[in-house]
Amino acid sequence: MQLFSLVLIVSFPTALAAGHEFLGSRGQVQLTASGIVCPETCSDCSTDAGKQECVLGMAKNVLSDFRAGNGYGFQVWIRDANTFIETSLQDGMSHESAENALLEFFKYQDESGGVPDWVIMGSYQSGKNTVETDQESSLIQAIAQYVKLTGNVDVLKKTVSGIYDRSTTVKDGIEKAFAFLKSKTSPKHGLLYQATTVDWGDVQAQGDGNVITMGSGSHLSMGIYANAMYAQALINYADLCRRANDDTCAAKYTTEASELKQRIRSALWDEERQKWFPHVYFEKDQYGRAEGLGVGRGGSPFSSDVDERSIYIHGGTSIAMLAGLMSEAEGKAAYQKMKQDAQEAGSGNGITVGLTCWPPYPKGTINMNPFWYQNAGDWPWFGGRTVQALVQEGHLEEAREALRPMVDRTLKHRGFFEWYDEKNMPQGSASFHGAAGALSKAIRMLQAVGSPK
After folding, report:
1. pTM surpassing 0.85?
2. To 5 degrees, how large is the angle CA 324–CA 325–CA 331?
């Protein structure tokens, strides 16, 4: 997910061993005929329902704090926390702990309204991968989930003392975050832009030598992931306003969400291929900069022999489904394409729809080799959200089918690994909280609709 993980991959070549240590202290395990590892705390690993309960139990043990997972130290990442706060609260995390973690990000909010990617609670340490523009949307979505689960709408009135000698209420902080996002929109398209990354990634394809910082050498573009996250944040904040009995606010942000969704469909949907464009680029001005912005670089960072339009974006498509940007028929077709991609990528070895993209960007065109990390790595953190989207759209058979290999793999490797390579082998953090949260929520959503008939 983050550059920090890229360092981990080099520094800790035996991530699998870390996974064994992660669950090894929980007692003996039992192998089933299929090779699935069933911890002794699980009563049944012979059925889908039993295995899902086992994964929920594993997640409860992992999600006891807001940290990103082993290998990340004490860092709390907002894009991760947004995907596990619901599970953490359902599994007993105190409301106070969750609230404190979220309000910490407002403490570091800068004058423009931007918030960091990560903080270390109480340490005055934070950081931001400025090539991405999902941090503010992630925080707003997380606040909305917190209020929905706790009923504590008064958190919007809470005052946070910032490190820049400023104080703000949470409500004002959210609206400043929206102002920041608006400052990062294309005047022509009215869409969020960022440096060019793969799908939802926060590592840019090309830049000034720093893969996580936007600079004059960054090729700027618009993509579905960040804009779908923005639309979802607007929807969530409108709901928060309704809960706070502020009808004017609710109407304003409902309208903004609707208008943004129309712009997204108009500019980013490839009608001919029935998919999202991986990127829409800016024209170049006379200095080679992104036209209309005066910063970054216009045009694509890829040579003409890279057929980027043929690349299917998995993660961003799933977030678009969750944000209501695709019809039920489009969502079902998207799943079938993702399923086909996973089969092709892994030749039937268990690779899932959690792929970032398919096919991968060719070697030498970005900072990652094919099948590695954000370039066609398989991330349960996003695969779980694909399942959530399928459930939300009513595609229950497809959701169960998509979830099954993710659950089996979690049990087989005894941990919530960050991502999987083309051999379906685990990589990165062995207790990645985002994966635990995304899979747990997917399981609970399926449980809520009942067993298949």
Report:
1. yes
2. 85
